[in-house]
């Protein structure tokens, strides 16, 4: 399972390196016109730009510490899951891989590179990256796992 997290980390860091190499800050390239651009942005906050503009003392160190704590907790919990919980393991491992990708950015630069810009007309979703997508898919797996677990619990009672 940890190989899966390492693969996510590799893809995340590789795509961010390509963006940093080929785009200047705030430059964008249209991938699918009127729907998807790659746009280089730097996010010093949390997911979806939360706290990006907040003036908090020691924000990079605080964000890094929170991410490290969460990563350690998730790794410990994942290692204790039984083989009968594969969807939960996949979800948590995807979250770990994504968290490692964003943590690597925070440690090396103090911000996270975001570049996937999905939009429709004048509506824009927050820019995100492969790590964010992995965390989101992992959370979806956990929700699905809980729904299945709840169904099994209901059937046995």
TrEMBL record:
A Pfam family of this chain: Peptidase_A8
Keyword annotations: Cell membrane, Hydrolase, Membrane, Protease, Transmembrane, Transmembrane helix
Molecular-function GO terms, alphabetical: aspartic-type endopeptidase activity
GO CC aspect terms: membrane
Transmembrane parts of this sequence: 61-79, 86-104, 124-144
GO biological process: proteolysis
HAMAP family named among the record's database cross-references: LspA
Protein name: Lipoprotein signal peptidase
Species name: marine metagenome
């Amino acid at each position: 399972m940890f190989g899966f997290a390492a693969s996510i980390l590799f893809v995340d860091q590789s795509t961010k390196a390509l963006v940093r190499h080929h785009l200047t800050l705030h430059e964008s390239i249209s991938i699918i016109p009127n729907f998807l651009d790659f746009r280089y942005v730097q996010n010093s906050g949390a997911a979806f730009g939360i706290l990006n503009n907040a003036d908090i003392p020691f924000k990079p160190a605080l964000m890094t510490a929170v991410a490290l704590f969460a990563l350690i907790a998730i790794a410990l919990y994942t290692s204790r899951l039984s083989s009968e919980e594969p969807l939960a393991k996949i979800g948590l491992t995807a979250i770990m891989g994504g968290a490692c990708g964003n943590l690597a950015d925070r440690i090396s630069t103090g911000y996270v590179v975001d570049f996937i810009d999905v939009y429709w007309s004048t509506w824009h979703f927050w820019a995100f990256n492969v790590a964010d997508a992995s965390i989101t898919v992992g959370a979806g797996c956990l929700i699905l796992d809980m729904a299945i677990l709840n169904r099994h619990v209901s059937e046995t009672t």
